Amino acid sequence: MTQDLFRHLRIHTATKDKLKMNIDILREEIEADEGCEYKIYRCSEGYPTAGIGHLLTEWDEEYYDKPIGTPVSEEQAQEWFVNDVQVAIGDCQDIFNSFDKLPEDLQHVFVNMAFQLGGPRLRKFRKMIAAVEMEDYNEVAAQMEDSRWFKQTTKRAQRLIDRVIKLGVPI
What we know:
The protein is mainly α. It has helices spanning 2-15, 23-34, 74-95, 104-117, 119-122, 126-133, 137-145, 148-152, 154-168, and strands spanning 37-42, 48-51, 54-55. Strands 1-2-3 form a three-stranded antiparallel beta sheet. Helix 1 packs parallel to helix 3, helix 3 (74-95) packs across helix 4 and helix 6 (126-133) packs antiparallel against helix 7. The protein is elongated. The termini are far apart. The model is unreliable at 10-17 (pLDDT under 50).
């Protein structure tokens, strides 16, 4: 079941606007940042969460309003991840004019941010988005660092910023 979900996601992202992204690596990166819990827990902000950083909402009828510690199947966690990462990719495609043409590592960075923050919060990084359009990766990194997001999740943010900085260094 899990392999089928990732196969679907790979096919979907490979055909949509010719986006080429290694979803398996992206999943590993996001899981390293979010963790993976096969039970309901409270995230750092105190919200009920499960799987790979999946915020539980009223749409998650089977799990919403269940107590912390309620088990969640691996299949459910993976299904949530596939849906959540598709939303994050779609948000990035809406926010960045040429998202599909960005270097894959930069795509991963922004999908990771969209996964964590959500599209509406990522959209507030207006100066960063403008710097992306100008391909000024050092300014992208500076704008990422000059944010409340950086102060709240410094280690994760710094790892992502370091990846952007590497893109701004001439070869």
